Amino acid sequence: MHTVPSICAYCGVGCGVGLRVEGGRVIGVEPQAGHPVSQGQLCAKGWSNAYAVDPVGRITTPLVREHGELRPAGWDEALTRVAEALRTSLETYGPLGVGVISCARASNEDNYAAQKFARAVLGTHNIDHCARICHSPSVAGLSRTLGSGAMTNSIADLDEAELILVIGADVTENHAMIGARMLRAQARGARLVVIDPRKTRLARLADMHLQLRLGSNIALLNGLVQIILDNGWENRAFLAKRCEDIEPLSRHLAGITPEQTSRETGVPVEQLIKLARLYSQSKAAFIAYGMGITQFQSGTNNVIAVSNLALVCGQVGRPGTGINPLRGQNNVQGACDMGCLPDVFPGYQKVADASVRAKFADAWGCAMPETPGMTSLGMTKAAAAGQFGCLMILGEDPVQTDPDRNQVAHALAQLDCLVVIEMHLTETAKLADVILPAASFAEKDGTFSNCERRVQRIRRALPPPGQARCDWQILGELARRLGHTGFEWQSAEAVFDEMASLSPIFSAMSYAALDTHHGLQWPCDAEHPQGSPILHQHSFPLGRARLLPVSCVAPAECPDADYPFWFTTHRLHFHYGCGSMTRKSPLLERETPAGLLFIHPADAVRLGLAQHQRVRVSSRRGELITRLELSDDLAPGTLAMPYHFREAPCNLLTNDAQDPITRMPELKACAVALEAVDEQAKEEGAHARRP
Amino acid sequence: MIDSTPRPMILEDAYADGEDARHFQLRLVDPQATDLAAQPGQFFMLAVPGHGEAPFTYVRAPDAEGRFSALVRRTGQLTEALFELQIGSVLGYRGPLGRGWPHDLTGRHVLVIAGGCGLAPLAGLIDAARDNAARLQVIYGARHPGAQVLARERARWRLDLDYLETCDVASPGERSGSPVAHLDELLGQNIPDAVLCCGPEPLMLASAEHCLKRGVPAVHIWLSLERRMHCGAGLCGHCHIGASYACVDGPTYNYEQYLALTRAAGLYSTAQAIRHC
Amino acid sequence: MLAAHKLDSPERLRAHLAQGREVQEMRADGQGGWHWQNLAAGDGLPFEPPPRPPLTSAKPLFFAEREALFRFDGGTFYGCLPEIEPKVLFGVSACDLRALAYQDQFFAQDEHYQRRRRQTLLVGYDCGHSCAGGFCTAVGGSPLVNQTQADLILRRNGHGGWTLLVASQAGAEAIAALALPQAPEDWTAERDADLAQVRAEQGAQAEITAGIAAIQAASVEPERWEALGLRCLGCSGCTSVCPTCSCYAPLEQREEGGALLHERVWDSCLYTGFQKEASSHNPAATAGQRVQRFWYHKFGTAFAERFGAYGCVGCGRCDVVCPGSIGAHGVMTRISRP
C-alpha cells in the first residue's frame, strides 16, 4: 500500500488527492492534507476517483470499424488507418476539412500536443475543446472589458472577502470545495449573497437570495449598476484611474428605475437596493459566477454586465475581490491556456498576429496557416454539410453533452473518418471509425490547471491497462507516421518544458518549481517567479478597463401556448459531465434519483402529477420520457433537468440558438411541454423531431 | 465465522403472479438441515450473478429436495435481470436469515393484515396457522385487482378461510379502501391475540395503531419491515432501524420493539423531516 | 502490564520485530500528508510519529476499502479469502487502537477482517500532548494506550529516552530475544502526568458532553437535524476517515476471462441511496435524518452498551474533512445550544 499525491480529475477546482495504490490498482482516494485549494477536504466525486480509473470496463486496445462493427486491432493497424484517413481528407478537403477537438479533462501536455498536431501536422487551426459550451463567453467578455478571460483572483481570496456574490453557479454541488470555503468565510463573518433562478443549497444557506427570472441577468446587473450610480456609491477613484470613460454606460443606463428592474427580474426592490449598497460599499467583494451567466445566447454580454458591476465599484485587482468564472472541468483552463482554441497559440498568443505565427513556425519547423480555424460547433456543422473529412476527438462526448444531440450524431455520421481517443465507450465513441485507448490521469505524469490558473502536478500511480497510452504519445506516433518531426518527447516533462519555452506566461514554470510550491498560478515569468495569485493589481492587459453598455435580450425561445414551461439544465453533486466516470462508482450511481425532471410541487399539483410520475417532456426539437422529482428549488413554471444521463438525454430538448460572438449555445433556457404517460412507457421513447 | 459465499440453486420454473410480479420455483442443489428448518417470515439472499444479491422471503419453505418458492416484483435492475433468466439457470442462495413470525400461535386468535407484495412473507404463516390457530382472519389490500399477488394461494384461502380482500381502486360492488378501514367490521367485538402485518410501512403503522387502540397490546402486534439489505449478517449497515439491524434482529419486530427502537434513537419520519426542510 | 522495559532506540525494536514480519509505519509524503505504508526491508529511518493521527487511520489495514468476497464461474460460487503474512503496525495512537478494539468486536465473525487481525502485532504509542482538534479525553478515551488494546506500548520517558510496556503475551514473546532491561519505576507516574497534561490541553469540551447528553435523551428537534443536513454534501469523507465506521456496499464486476466477481467496498450512511430500496421507498430520505442517525450510531446509549464504549474515539478527523463544517465539534456545538 502506498499513496501517490495527485490532482482530482473532476471539476475545475483542482483539489489535491492522494491515490491509494494496492495490488496494482488504485483502491481508494484521500484528500491531500494542507493542499492550498482543498485544504484537506474532497467532495463526493473526489472521494470516488478510484472507480473512474478502474481498469474494468475500460477500452484497452485500439478498435477499428469493419463491416459496421468495431473490432480490436493492433496499434500499428489502427494508427495506419488514421494516418491514411487524415492524408485522404487533406487531399480531398484541404486543411479546413480536418480538425481536432481536444479535451478539457486531459493534461496540459496532451492538450499542447493536440494543438501542435493540428497546426504543425495537419496545417489547420481547426482545434477546439468543450470550453465552447461552458466558458467561451467568459473568455470573450472579459477579453473585451479587461483583456484576459480567466479568474482574476484566487480561491484563497474568499478568506479575505467581506462580501461574496455568487451568480448563476451551484457552487456547493459543482465546485464543492469552493462552496465549502464560501461557507467557512460566511461563518467567520463574510456576507454571502446568491443570485440564481434556482433555490440552490447555497442560496438556502446564504444571507440573501435573489431568485431572478430565468434569463434576466443583464436586466438585474444593469439595474444594480444604475442604483449604485444614482446613489453615488461608485468607486470614483478607481473609475478615474483604471477605466475608460463611464459616460456611454451611464447614458445607456440612465432612467432605469429599481421598480422597472424589479418588474423585469422578479426580484423585490428592497433586495436590489440592499445588494447594490452591500456590493459597492464592501471593502472587498468577490464575485463568482458559473454557467448560469454563460450558457445563454447573450452569454458574452452577460459576462460584460458582470464586469461592469465589478469595475464601477472597483472590486478588482485587490485581495478578496475579483471577477471569478468557475470553470467546469479539471483542465478546461489548461486546454485554453495550451491554445486548444482556433484563434490562439499556447499562452493566448494570437493566431492573427503574424509575428506570433512566425515564432511558432520557427520553433516547430513548419509554416503556420493563416486561415482562421473553426470552433467545434463549426466543425460539426461543416461535417453535416459534407465539407469535412476527418475529425479527431480526444476524450470528449459531444453526442451526449452538446445541444441538440441528434444534429451532432447526424453530423459525425457524415464524416469520412471519426477518430476518438477515449478511456470508455461513450456515446460519441460508439460512432467512431477508429478508437484509440487512452491512459487515465492516474496512469500518467503531467499537469492540470485549475480555474484560478494554478498549474499543478499529476503523478503516475500505476501503468495504463492493456495497450492504453497517453494522448501526447499517441499523437506523437501519429505525427511520425505522417512524416513530421518535433514530437519525439521522452516524458511529459519534456512536453511541458517545450510549452513553457514558447509561452511567456509560463516561462518560469518547471516540474521542480511546481512540486515545491503546490502548483503555480500564471503569469509565472521572470517578473513573477512565484506566480500571480491576483491579476490586474496595477493595470489591465487592455491598459484601462472598458465599461461596455449591454442590454437584456430575452432567451431565443420563451414559453407559449404550445410549450408553456421554461426549461433549464443543471448538474448534480454526484455526477459529472456525461457520467462516464462518476457512474462507474456503485455509490454515486445509486444516488441517481428515479426522477430526473425537477418540477415545483405547485406545478405538479396544478397538473395532477405525483412524485416519480412518468412524464413526456417535449420541445420543438425533440422529446423524451422520464420521471418527476418534486422540488421547490425552482420557481413555479420552470422545469429543470440534469444532463448526465444517457437514459434521459436532456439535450434532445435544448435550443442551439447561439451567442453571436462565441457560438455558445443557449443551454440554460428554452420552452417545453409536459404530459403524464403510462407507467409502461420506457425511456426509449426519447427521440428527435427531425432526422 | 460468517460465510458470505452463496450456495448454488436452480431456477426450475416461474409464472406471472400479479402486476410486474412472478412466482419463482427454486431448488437448492445441496439442501442442508438449516434450510429445512426455515420459518415463515425469514428470508434468504438471492444472487443473480453479475447483478448482485437481494433479500426475498419464502412463500413456501424448502422441502427435503430443497424446493421452495418466492414471489418477486420487478422493481430494479436485479429483478429485471432475474425476470430475463432461462429456466435451469444457476442462482446463488444464502439463508435462512433473520427472525420470522412468532411461533406460539397455537390456539390463538390470529389476525393477518397484508398489503401488496407484503402477502408473500405471510403466505407460509397463513398455511401453518390455518391448522393450529384457534381462529385465523386474513385481510389483504392491494392498489387494484391487477396488482394482487399469489393468485393460486388466495384461491385456496378463499374457499376455507375467514379471508377478505380490498382494493384502493376496486371493481364495482367490491370492497374498497385501506385494510385498516375494514378492521372494526372484521373484528366485531373480538380482540385478537396476535396481529401479524406486512406491507407498505405506512399501512403497517396505521394497522398497528388501530389495533393498539382496539386494545391489542403492542407486544402482540408484529410487523415485517422492508429494508435495503446486502450482507444478511448485521455488518454492512444498510438495514438499520435505530440500533437494530433488520437482517439479524428482524425483519419481524413486535410493535413495542419498533417503538422503543425508534424512540431511543430519536428517529423521525421523512414526513416530519420534510416539514422542516 | 506484564512488564516495563527501558528501550535505547525504537528503531532497534522495529528492526527486531521486522524479522519474519512486514512492518507498517506512518510516513510523511512531502506534500503535507502522512500515510500508513509498508517499510522496505532494512528501512532504518528514525521513528517519528506524526503530530496528529494521519487522515486515513489503520482501519483499511483490516477492513479493506475494497476486497473480493466471492467469484462465480458460471456454475459454482467460490469464496475469496485473503492470504495474510505476519505484520506489525508500529506506532499506533491510543485513539486508533481504541477504534480497532471497537472494530474487533463488530467484525468478530468476519473472516476477512479477522485473518488480518490475527496476523498483526500492534505496537501502540502514548501521546504526551493533545493533537490539534483531538478530544479523546471527552469521550471516555485517553491519550495513553489501553493495555488490552495493544501488544506493546512505546512511550517517551521523562529522561529523553524510551520506555516499552509489554501489554500481551504475544508482545512479550516478540521481544524476548532482545533481553531489554527493566524500566525505572517512575513510568506509571509519568503516564499519569501525560494524561493530566492532555486533559488540560483538551479542556472541558463542554459542547461534546452536552451534545452526547442531547443525543442520548433524543431531545434534538428534527428542524435542527435538517438544518445540519443542509450542510451535508454527502461526500462520504467523515465515514471514510472515521476509524469506527464500518458500512460497506456490494460491487459486481466482470473479470477478464468472464468470471463474475462480487466485491465489497466502503459505503457511507450519509448517501441518499444508502437505505433507498428498489421500490424507491427510503426510510432516511432527508439529509437531516441521515446526519442524525450517524451521530446516534456514535453516541447512542444502545450502541455504547453493546460495545462498552462510544463509537467516537475523539480523533477529530471528521472535523478536518467535512466541507460543511459539521464534524464532531460542528454538530455537537449546534445540537447542544439551547
Task: Describe the fold and architecture.
- The complex is a heterotrimer of chains A (691), B (277) and C (338).
- By secondary structure, chain A is an alpha/beta fold.
- Chain A folds into four domains: 2-52, ADC-like domains (N-terminal domain of TfIIb, Single Sheet), CATH 2.20.25.90; 63-133 and 330-506, Rossmann fold; 136-325, Dimethylsulfoxide Reductase, domain 2 (3-Layer(aba) Sandwich); 565-688, Beta Barrel (Barwin-like endoglucanases).
- Chain A has 25 helices and 27 strands.
- In chain A, strand 13 (344-345) and strand 14 form a beta hairpin.
- Chain A is globular and about 70 Å long.
- In chain A, 62% of the residues are buried.
- Chain B is an alpha/beta fold.
- Chain B has two domains: 7-97, Elongation Factor Tu (Ef-tu), domain 3 (Beta Barrel); 109-272, Nucleotide-binding domain of ferredoxin-NADP reductase (FNR) module (Rossmann fold), CATH 3.40.50.80.
- Chain B has helices at residues 33-36, 77-84, 120-132, 151-160, 183-187, 201-213, 246-249, 255-265, 270-276; strands at 7-16, 21-28, 43-48, 52-57, 67-73, 90-97, 109-115, 135-142, 162-167, 194-198, 221-224, 240-241, 244-245, 252-254.
- The mean pLDDT of chain B is 93.
- Chain C is α/β, with parallel strands linked by helices and 338 residues long.
- Chain C folds into two domains: 3-65 and 82-202, no CATH class; 206-249 and 261-336, no CATH class.
- Chain C has twelve helices and eleven strands.
- In chain C, strands 1-9-8-7-6-2-3 form a seven-stranded mixed sheet. Chain C has a four-stranded antiparallel sheet with strand order 5-4-11-10, with no helix packed on it.
- The termini of chain C are far apart.
- The relative contact order of chain C is 0.15.
- Chains in contact: A-C, B-C.
- At the B-C interface, strand 4, strand 12, helix 8 and helix 9 of B face strand 4, strand 5, helix 7, strand 10 and strand 11 of C.
Most extensive contact: B-C, 51 and 59 residues
Q: What's the helix count of chain C?
A: 12
Average pLDDT metric of chain C: 95
Gap between N and C termini of chain A = 53 Å
Q: Nearest-angstrom radius of gyration of chain A?
A: 24 Å
Q: Which structural class do you get from the secondary structure elements of chain A?
A: alpha/beta
Ends distance of chain C: 45 Å
What is the radius of gyration of chain C computed over CA atoms, rounded to a whole number of angstroms? 21 Å
CATH topology of the largest domain in chain A: Rossmann fold
| Largest sheet, strands/sense/barrel of chain A | 7 strands, mixed
The SSE string of chain C, one letter per element, is EHEEEEEHHEEEHHHHHEEHHHH
Low-pLDDT windows of residues of chain C: none
Mean pLDDT of chain A: 91
